[in-house]
Amino acid sequence: MYSLFNVSFSLFQLIVISCLFIAFVVQLIYYTCCYSKLLTYWNSIKKGKITFNTTLPPVSVIICAKNEADNLQKFLPSILEQDYPSFEVIVVNDGSTDDSEDILMVLKHTYPHLRTTFVPQAAKYIDSKKIALVLGIKAAKNEILLFTDADCHTISKDWIEKIVRNFDDNTEIVLGYGAYRKTKGFVNHLIGYDTLFIAIQYLSFALAKKTYMGVGRNMAYKKSLFYKNKGFASHLNIQSGDDDLFISEASSKTNTKIEIHPNSITVSEPNTSLKRWFNQKQRHISTSKYYKWRSKFILGTEVFSRGLFYISTIALMLALPSHTTYIVVGSFIFVRYIAQITIINYAATILGERKYISSIPLFDILLPLFNLYVWCRSLIHRKQHYKWK
């Protein structure tokens, strides 16, 4: 037995208490020191402490489309009708077999700044979005490249302006937020929470000068950076990675900014089934093993400390059942929960997402388990190919 403050504990109980305390502190550090950077940054913007570039350089918007006829017809006009003085929109038709080409031809008559190109027939068996992006980038006339997807639409005609205002001589990358359309149902709530939490992570770490990813639904970088980084050469053989792996490699402590103004957000059509979302997550997680060691450590520590917090909480209540234990454990859970609902819902307000209250504990436990399952499957099926559409 070991004595601590006149209370005797077994070695196992001391280990569990230590694990709970360490996990609790680490979790609070992530929420109060890391994720809160997003809130601090937004408050600085509102107070006028953040300055933006007032010049409006020409921009090339690049969209890859594979059998996206309906989405192009519905959503492409929101991109083409942006209130910006000089921009072109390049749509890369990646071997579509639907009416995409016909729709693009009709739109080109109305919008002269719409340009199209296509993936050569000889490349039709390359199961990757990257070749389409490379063709779009090579076709671009302008230095600033802004990326989104065919199933995305903007919520404001100021989208281009809000993203581009962050560029200056030192800034080469701007990361935005890509939301999913809100609908009813558990799956949509789960997708919404996962998307929001991932955004809180990558945007906050970018502010902390530890950039590790962006999302292809809404991000921009300079064409010269793409060539300086030799494009996707280092991971051309890897499925996906055109956004996270490229941004991780090309970013530095000084060349990356974020944009979180409500008018800068894009909205995508969400998956309607767990199976389709599962496939999407599997593509993303399949590239996470190629992240830099520092990024894997930062992300892994958060997930590990989260799991340790829940496990040690249960273990302590079983190993040392008493009113004092329940009060201490309950206090830890309450304090962490307050930090969660404060940070997550403030970020949700900034990014135009729904707020989460009672569902936070459920998703907080469920998503790491789901990601672990997907990650294990990706290890088992190493040679599986994931089509981007």
Written account of the structure:
- Helices cover 52% and strands 13% of the residues.
- The chain is α/β, with parallel strands linked by helices and 389 residues long.
- It has two domains: 9-41 and 295-380, no CATH class; 51-290, Alpha-Beta Complex (Spore Coat Polysaccharide Biosynthesis Protein SpsA, Chain A), CATH 3.90.550.10.
- The strands form three sheets. A seven-stranded mixed β-sheet has the order 5-4-3-6-10-8-11, sandwiched between helices. Strands 7-12-9 form a three-stranded mixed β-sheet.
- β1 (2-4) and β2 form a beta hairpin.
- α1 crosses α10.
- The longest helix has 36 residues, at 11-46.
Low-confidence stretches: 1-6
Largest sheet: 7 strands, mixed
- CATH class descriptor name of the largest domain: Alpha Beta
Largest sheet, spatial ordering of strands: 5-4-3-6-10-8-11
CATH H-tier superfamily of the largest domain: Spore Coat Polysaccharide Biosynthesis Protein SpsA, Chain A
Please give the structural blueprint:
Layout: E1 2-4, E2 7-9, H1 11-46, E3 59-65, H2 69-80, E4 87-93, H3 100-110, E5 114-118, H4 130-139, E6 144-149, E7 152-154, H5 159-164, E8 173-175, E9 178-180, H6 186-207, E10 219-222, H7 223-228, H8 244-250, E11 256-258, E12 266-268, H9 274-288, H10 293-319, H11 323-350, H12 360-380
Parallel strand pairs: 3-4, 3-6, 4-5, 8-11, 9-12
Antiparallel strand pairs: 1-2, 6-10, 7-12, 8-10
Helix pairs in contact: 1-6, 1-10, 1-11, 2-3, 9-12
Quick summary:
The chain has 389 residues and is of the alpha/beta class. It is built from twelve helices and twelve strands.
